[in-house]
Design brief:
Elements (H helix, E strand, L loop, with lengths): L2 H5 L1 H15 L3 E4 L12 E7 L2 E8 L5 H44 L3 H15 L4 E7 L5 E8 L3 H4 L4 E2 L4 H9 L3 E3 L11 H7 L4 E8 L2 E9 L8 H47 L10 E8 L7 E9 L2 E9 L3 H19 L5 H15 L6 E9 L4 E7 L5 E4 L2 E4 L18 E4 L5 E5 L15 H14 L4 H16 L8 E8 L1
Antiparallel strand pairs: 1-3, 2-3, 4-5, 4-9, 5-6, 7-8, 8-9, 10-19, 11-12, 12-13, 13-14, 14-17, 15-16, 15-18, 18-19
Helix pairs in contact: 3-4, 3-8, 4-8, 9-10, 11-12
Length: 504
């Protein structure tokens, strides 16, 4: 480089004028390739910046050679100082520019390892450092895991784990959230791997926390292979980059979590679609009987289910069940219960035996605390009878002659006790009878005052729908509407299933 490149033409011209005014003699500032002056009274001196010849200063017309030498040396020193300052400013600008480019690159890249490798390389490029390593804390912040390095051998980077409990330096960084300076890695008692540092020829180091909103995500170590004291600018720059790196770590983690969450949601939607296919799309058509069903899951996967099982001889099995809990676990129990019920109903005729067999299956396959409430009834349309068994389920409502009542009988839930007895009941149906079978998601729906819809309102809504001489489908919709009108926009916290049967 030349003086002109350091200071610019205008500055060189102004300096020459100022020097001339100060000395009272003509002063010229020449490029490095200019020829020496032929004037015997001229005194010239080369301007050297970092041992590089960048220009020449020439003083003319001064009789006293000692004075000439002194003035030229003084002016040369001024030029050198100005060039060094310009060089330092330019270096700082380049460092800040590199930091800006690196920050911009963070927003364009999603791979965390790639981002941290860029950070390590940039750290070395914008400081006087020779190497850089980046370690990130594990989830419980007990160990620093190697993520990126630059200027270090593979043998050194694979030297071993760094546990927070064993590293005094990292404990100091973690406790104070400040930088820790190491004058000589080779003999500092706080350094864990001094022998490896000697083999790698590492001398000075600066350890800087990667902090994001008061939480340290990792630690950046910047090394030199010579004694070096990091000045305030280098320290501030490294801290700034470390802060951006911490932000990148958090963003990358959030991005990965978002991708994982989306994959889980996609899988849940697919599982929900499969589960919905287990629930009959349409109720069976039976002469003299109207049947309707409503199925409103709270999440993608539900614990409620209903089913219709053709049993031959004009008989129809009707099941409404509620598995404890919600989500994936409940949906798996729901599928298991449904399969068990269908399997045993295919070769057993006694309802008590069917539910006992289902109970033993669930008791064997589930854990303590897993249970199912279930209503299973067999409707004989020809004889107009209903044989049913209720296992801890919500009482079935019967509307007859404009009066609402609950079917009697019942036993414990399924899956808790392998020896649980189940008792079946049979009663005769009459024309105009309406049966409403539902899960607890209906009476337990709450409004914004945390008041439950309750059984009384379920009774009243069912009775009102029957008074309006609704069809089975219309009765179910009316009851659901009354519940939603009561709850308003309050978030549902349970699945809701309802089967309505109307005897014509």
């Amino acid at each position: 480089m030349t003086l002109t490149e350091y200071l610019g033409d205008d500055a060189i011209e102004q300096l020459a004028g100022m020097f001339s005014s100060a000395t009272g003699s003509p002063v010229r500032i020449l490029p490095p390739d200019s020829k020496a002056s032929s004037n015997p009274s001229a005194v010239e001196a080369k301007v050297l910046v970092s041992s590089e010849h960048v220009g020449t200063i020439s003083l003319l017309g001064k009789a006293d050679s000692a004075e000439n030498d002194r003035m030229v040396e003084l002016m040369r020193n001024v030029l050198v100082r100005l060039c060094e300052q310009a060089k330092q400013i330019r270096s700082r600008v380049e460092e800040l520019s590199a930091m800006h480019r690196m920050t911009a690159a963070f927003s364009e890249r999603r791979d965390l390892k790639e981002i941290l490798n860029l950070v390590a390389e940039t750290m070395v490029g914008v400081t006087d450092a020779d190497a850089c390593s980046i370690r990130v804390f594990n989830e419980d912040q007990t160990e620093l895991l190697r993520m990126a390095a630059y200027g270090l051998s593979g043998k050194y980077t694979a030297k071993g784990p760094i546990r927070l409990a064993d590293s005094q330096i990292d404990q100091e960084v973690f406790a104070n959230e400040g930088c820790v300076y190491i004058a000589d890695e080779r003999n500092d008692e706080r350094v864990l791997y001094k022998a490896e540092a000697r083999r790698e020829n590492l001398v000075s180091a600066l350890c800087v926390p990667m902090s994001y909103r008061g939480r340290i995500e990792g630690i950046i170590r910047v090394y030199t292979r010579r004694p070096h004291k990091f000045d305030w600018f280098e320290t501030s720059l490294i801290r700034g980059v470390a802060s951006q790196a911490a932000n990148a770590v958090v963003n990358a983690r959030l991005y990965d979590e978002a991708l994982l969450a989306e994959r889980i949601r996609r899988q849940l939607r697919l599982a929900g679609d499969v589960q919905k296919r287990m629930v009959p799309a349409n109720p069976p058509r039976i002469k003299g009987v109207g049947i309707a069903a409503i199925y409103v899951p709270c999440f993608e996967l539900a614990g409620d289910f209903y089913d219709f099982i053709e049993l031959g001889n004009g008989k129809l099995g009707i099941c409404v069940a509620d598995v404890v809990g919600k989500g994936v676990r409940a949906s798996l129990l729901m599928a298991s219960t449904r399969s068990s019920l269908r399997a045993h109903a295919a070769h057993l005729s006694d309802l008590s035996e069917i539910l006992s067999a289902v109970n033993i299956d669930l008791w064997r396959e589930s854990e303590v605390g897993d249970f199912v409430t279930l209503f299973f009834g067999v409707l004989d349309a020809k004889r107009k009878t209903l044989t049913y068994c209720s296992a801890g389920h919500e009482p079935v409502l019967l509307v007859r002659n404009s009066q609402v009542s609950e079917l009697s009988g019942g036993s414990g839930v399924i899956g808790m006790d392998k020896d649980m007895p189940f008792r079946q009941e049979t009663f005769n149906l009459e024309s105009g009878d309406i049966l409403n079978i539902f899960t607890d998601g209906l009476p337990e729906a709450i409004d914004f005052h945390d008041e439950a819809f309750g059984r009384k309102r379920v009774h009243n809504a069912t009775l009102e729908a029957c008074r309006q001489r609704q069809t089975a489908k219309g009765i179910g919709k009316f009851i659901l509407w009354e519940m939603r009108r009561f709850a308003g926009l309050q978030t549902r916290c349970d699945d809701l299933t309802m089967v309505t049967v109307k005897i014509q």
